[in-house]
Amino acid sequence: MQQSIRRVAIIGGNRIPFVRSNTAYLGVSNQAMLTATLQGLSSRYDLASKPIGEVAGGAVMKHSADFNLVRESLLGTDLSPVTPCMDIQQACGTGLAAVGVIANKIALGQIDSGIACGTDTTSDAPIGIAEEMRQVLIRVNAAKTGKQRLQALAKLRPWHLGIKIPQNAEPRTGLSMGGHTEITAKAWQVPREEQDRLAEASHKNLAAAYERGFFDDLMSEFQGLKQDNTLRPDTSYEKLASLGPAFDRESGEGTLTAGNSSTLTDGASCVLLASEEWAKEQGLPVKAWLTVLETSAVDFTGQSGEAEGLLLAPAYAVPRMLKRAGLTLQDFDYYEIHEAFAAQVLATLKAWEDENFCRDKLGLDAPLGSIDRSRLNVNGSSIATGHPFAATGGRIVATLAKMLEEKGSGRGLISICAAGGQGVTAILER
After folding, report:
1. Any idea where the domains of the chain sit in the sequence?
2. Cβ(117)–Cβ(37) under 8 Å?
3. Whether pLDDT at 1 is above 60
4. Residues taking part in catalysis
5. Could you tell me which residues are beta bridge partners of residue 424?
6. Does domain 177-213+291-429 have CATH number 3.40.47.10?
7. Helix/strand/coil for 35
8. Is the dihedral of CA 98, 419, 119, 62 positive or negative?
């Protein structure tokens, strides 16, 4: 039986303000943030008790008690309690990956509507105990008698005591994302000035978007906040240029700073997707269409040869996506490139402009070329907004869909790098 592929509509999204770690959401759980975000979406689109095909999403920083996070979050809202849910995780690409999961099911006719979501907090991070102590406690728990429990506890030593805080580092290299990006910045010769200029634009663009009310129908108030507290409207190039290196403080050549890097952030976001027929039945206008999605990964450890930059996977995903769509890099009205670090954005753009990279790594006859920088992250991005890992994808999709709706037509490209040398990219059209 031949099955037709249906178009996937983006109806809209919702998020709570993103906040700097250990500030306004200190101790607030992933579930509380995601519940509030989903409830905001339900209220905006009158979804209470209506059948929704499925909700998919997740978090990168999860407690063991969050094993059914999305489902438990949904049950705290007025969305229909018979809505199935699933948890997924693909590091910083989780939000956009969740969009892909829901979109594929809609396209195949498995569901007519769905919600993709993501949440993350480093202010309520899971704290583990030292491995030696954990092993002792496992044996205590397995013991059948009081004597056996005492025998197991007797093996505990003072040096076994300790806690384990989640680290912002790659398990295979021990380097933080910033440490890896310093290597990339040096390899691609990304100047400090360009990084600070991009960071300045991120704050200026986000501040301007708030001033014109762009986010009024994309956000819901939470914990008394109505906008991201990571935003610094008075940020200037001069202030950014005065900051010292944050990751390479020894060589004298470090260019990544706290100002041109995204910060640890708490927040949640979600996006409502549907078939064209469902949207019409509900009387909901379509903001944009999700047309193509691509994922990729790079060998950042050098297991198969020369190591690639940790966050350069989108540099490979986008060309494949463009080929599938029959488009060039210049065929877009907007570019939403997640700003994990300004250097990572700029290195990706330089890779697409580089003849050797495009020929040797991408197998292309010519470079992809440059983009119109005035179309890049025009409403700010992760440096100014913040980056709650799993929530960034939903923020970007909802933002870009509204931009296309406002323009009335056009095409937008999304590029999100992720830990583990991964990338998730997509194309939205109207």
Report:
1. 177-213+291-429
2. yes
3. no
4. 92, 387, 417
5. 295, 416
6. yes
7. helix
8. positive
